[in-house]
Design a protein that fits this description.
The protein is of the alpha+beta class. The protein is about 25% helix and about 40% strand. The strands form three sheets. Strands 1-2-3-4 form a four-stranded antiparallel beta sheet, sandwiched between helices. Strand 10 and strand 11 form a beta hairpin. Helix 2 runs antiparallel to helix 3.
Length: about 280
């Protein structure tokens, strides 16, 4: 039996994550452009669903955006502060252990609301409801996010068989990007963007447990790649690029001299003038 979510797993998420991206949450996760930097991303394929875990950073701190894309292309997403993501990671372990202790699905022994186990997380003005549920298509963990002052609910549904894989991916990101607040530099240079022909280059400065770095991303319509450059090597990168620029200028100058050998600005003696 396939562990996929029920039909109620994201019906109101579109309005909610639009609101989040307009800065209605404490982390302003949707402040687009220079105010937000993408530090890392992971993609998981769990049964028929794809999940993207994106570590982002804005002026209020770091957070993780969890996006679910179903087989039909429908998208839902929630936002987690790093501390909340760590708590969620621990709950995933507990839910997975409980799931492993369950026997095969029994249609005659399912709670009326389909809930097998539930937990709740509270972070500032947001509540997160974790519900391990079962329906005719299997078992899944529904993660719902609400704002206490009102607003639609946003939710994703993780197939129960994929909870460990999801937890491990989340752990990798937390290990890399959770840093001691005492050593975290709040003021990092803003991101830069460069457009050349049909390519876009993004320069984003971030920080992890190993220090400050720059991520340089090359983005085209259906292509994206990136490199990460530690801060200690920036001067060397600059010197190498400057050296190449100087050499290319010299070559261009020599080519121009070759095309115009007499164009050095000195008048040439062409013999006596004709009378």
């Amino acid at each position: 039996m396939s562990d996929i979510g029920s039909g109620d797993e994201g019906s109101s998420s579109q309005k909610y994550h639009q609101g989040m991206e307009q800065g209605n949450a404490d982390y302003d996760p949707g402040q687009q452009g220079q105010m937000e930097q993408e530090l890392a991303t992971k993609m998981l394929q769990i049964q028929s669903k794809r999940f993207y875990l994106d570590v982002k950073q804005n002026r209020r701190g770091r957070f993780i955006k969890v996006a679910e894309i179903g087989a039909d292309g429908r998208r839902s997403q929630i936002f987690l502060a790093l501390t909340t993501a760590a708590e969620f990671r621990d709950h995933l372990s507990a839910f997975s252990d409980y799931y492993s202790s369950l026997g095969p699905p029994n249609p005659d022994n399912v709670p009326e609301d389909g809930k097998l186990k539930s937990e709740m997380m509270l972070k500032d003005n947001r509540r997160y409801y974790l519900d391990l549920k079962e329906n005719s298509r299997g078992r899944f963990l529904r993660v719902s996010q609400t704002i206490t002052r009102g607003g639609p609910r946003s939710q994703v549904a993780i197939p129960a068989q994929g909870m460990i894989e999801f937890r491990d991916a989340l752990t990798d990101l937390l290990d890399e990007f959770s840093v001691d607040e005492a050593t975290y530099r709040q003021e990092l240079p803003e991101g830069r963007h460069l457009h050349v022909d049909n390519k876009n280059f993004y320069f984003d400065v971030g920080q992890n447990a190993r220090g400050v770095y720059m991520r340089i991303s090359e983005v085209k319509t259906n292509f994206r790649t990136a490199i990460t450059v530690p801060e200690k090597s920036w001067p060397r990168f600059r010197d190498i690029l400057a050296d190449y620029c100087d050499k290319m200028k010299q070559q261009q100058h020599q080519q121009q001299q070759g095309e115009h050998p007499m164009g050095n600005g000195t008048p040439q003696d062409t013999g006596p003038a004709l009378k």
